[in-house]
Structure formats: structure tokens, C-alpha cells
Design a protein that fits this description.
about 280 residues; alpha/beta; Rossmann fold; nine-stranded mixed beta sheet; 12 helices; 9 strands; about 45% helix; about 20% strand; AB_hydrolase_fold; aminopeptidase activity; AB_hydrolase_1; Alpha/beta hydrolase
């Protein structure tokens, strides 16, 4: 594995290249969701297929998740966008990239595209939304509920999860509970700067948004279409929030088609990013 030292946090990074030494058509950066998620969600679903199709695939564990370092503080959305910037600079990624964000990872992708528009060729967001006041309130409630359940009676909560969702999910939930309990994440994320409609309209890169038709986020599809001039939003029938896990082939095909339609021919010839943080191979 590769550990990238940003100077603020050490992040676990994985990179998959096209086979047989072929030059990559474009770079896609996969950003995972919150608490129980990690880069493994991509590694075992769409990442290998994207690399096999000729893409340079970058994925990393967000701070506090997977094999990345878990600092006590620094979990706001600005911190997450800064970590993404550090990953791109630290790896020396050339030119604008395509960001693929699942759930909270999509919120990070929206924030980064507004912060560094010159570095983003396009977005694919899965079951995600920009950081609005309503989003912040929802995340505050979710994180407080996790903190309360894992503090009041962790054993009972984990036993229920194991009985209904399996032992693997219970182990992920235990790690998520510790993250919420032992760090400032439950305070930092809801306190992140939020966007109004005018700020969201400032996003100019093309956006593909995928939602489960039965998800409580499905209403984001018409909202994003109305706000963003270059947005395509689609509903996947019969699914709720777990679109990436339950319909990986649908997501894979959507990403490949979108990247093919939004990649500038000269992207591979753009200048590399400035030198960044230290990278350690393990």
C-alpha cells in the first residue's frame, strides 16, 4: 500500500493503472462515504473495471477511515477537500480529473469542484448532495444518533447490527462508533460552511448524479437539474441508498460513458501539478 503524508494527516492511497502499460485516457478519483465506508467499497466494485477500461484510478481512505490516520480533530468539509487536494498534488496527478463520489464522498467532490474548478473535469455523484443547511442538520442528527447509540450501550447496538446485517457490518459499525466517540467529527461536519442556491449554481463542470429511485435523496435529481446547467440526473429503479454496492455494473457503465463524453482530447498533455507532500511506499 501507499501512505501519503500531507503534513497534517497520513492517508492510505491506492492507484490502479491501465493494464499492459497503456497510457491512461483520463484520471478518475474515487471518494468514499462516511463512517462505515472506505476505499474498499470501490476496490471491490468498480475500480478494477475502470482501470481495465483504460483509466488511471486513484482512491484513498478519508481521514479517520480505513487505514488512514485518525486524528482527534479536523473533520470539517474544508479539511476533507484539503485532503483531496493533497492526494492529487502528492501523487503528481496531471491535469483536471474526474471525481466520483459516493454519499458523503459526493459532498466532498462538490465542495472540491467549487474550491478548485480548474482541477475538475467533471463529477459523478452517487446518492449524494451538496452541503446545504438542510444537509448539515441531517448530518448533525445522524452523527449524534450514532454517538448516543454507541455510547449508551455499544454491545447491544452491535449485537442488533450483527443479527440483522451480519458480523462484517457490525465490525464496521464498531469502528464508526469509535470514530464518532473519540474525535470531533460529529461537531466538525455539521459546522462546515454550507451553500445556498447561488453558490451551487456557480459550479460549471458537467455533473452526472445517480440516485436510487426509492431513496430519500431521489428528490435531489430534479433539484440539481434545475440548479446546474450541465447536470444529468438519473434514478435507478428499485434501489435505495446502496446504489454503488447493489448496482456496481450500472455505476461502472455510467462512469465510463460520462468520462468518455467529458474528457478533453488534450487533457493528457496538460502540465503536472506542483510538487506536493511526501509519499511513502509500504
Amino acid at each position: 500500500m501507499t501512505v501519503l503524508d500531507t503534513g497534517r494527516v497520513r492517508l492510505h492511497v491506492q492507484r490502479l493503472a491501465p493494464p499492459d502499460g497503456r497510457p491512461a485516457r483520463a484520471t478518475v478519483v474515487l471518494v468514499h462515504g462516511l463512517l462505515t465506508d472506505s476505499l474498499a467499497s470501490y476496490y471491490f466494485t468498480i475500480a478494477p473495471a475502470l482501470a481495465a477500461a483504460g483509466l488511471d484510478v486513484v482512491m484513498y481512505d478519508q481521514r479517520g477511515h480505513g487505514r488512514s490516520e485518525r486524528p482527534a480533530r479536523g473533520y470539517g468539509l474544508d479539511d476533507a477537500a484539503g485532503d483531496l487536494d493533497a492526494v492529487l498534488s502528492g501523487l503528481g496527478v496531471r491535469g483536471p480529473v474526474h471525481l466520483v463520489g459516493n454519499s458523503y464522498g459526493g459532498t466532498v467532490a462538490f465542495a472540491y469542484a467549487l474550491r478548485r474548478p480548474e482541477r475538475v473535469a467533471g463529477l459523478v455523484v452517487v446518492e449524494s448532495e451538496p452541503a446545504t443547511a438542510a444537509w448539515a442538520a441531517k448530518l448533525a442528527g445522524l452523527l449524534e444518533r450514532v454517538r448516543h447509540e454507541m455510547t449508551a450501550d455499544e454491545d447491544a447496538a452491535l449485537a442488533w447490527i450483527a443479527a440483522h446485517h451480519g458480523g462484517h457490518t457490525a465490525r464496521l459499525a464498531r469502528a464508526a462508533g469509535r470514530l464518532v466517540r473519540d474525535t470531533s467529527i460529529a461537531v466538525d461536519i455539521p459546522a462546515s460552511p454550507v451553500l445556498d442556491d447561488d453558490a451551487i449554481r456557480a459550479l460549471r463542470c458537467p455533473v452526472l448524479a445517480l440516485y436510487g429511485a426509492e431513496s430519500d435523496l431521489a428528490g435531489q435529481a430534479p433539484r440539481l437539474r434545475a440548479l446546474l446547467p450541465h447536470c444529468t440526473a438519473e434514478l435507478v429503479p428499485g434501489l435505495r441508498h446502496s446504489v454503488l454496492v447493489e448496482a456496481p455494473a450500472r455505476v461502472r457503465d455510467a462512469v465510463l460513458d460520462w468520462v468518455g463524453r467529458t474528457t478533453a482530447p488534450a487533457a493528457a498533455e496538460r502540465q503536472p501539478a506542483a510538487a506536493g507532500p511526501r509519499v511513502h511506499a509500504r
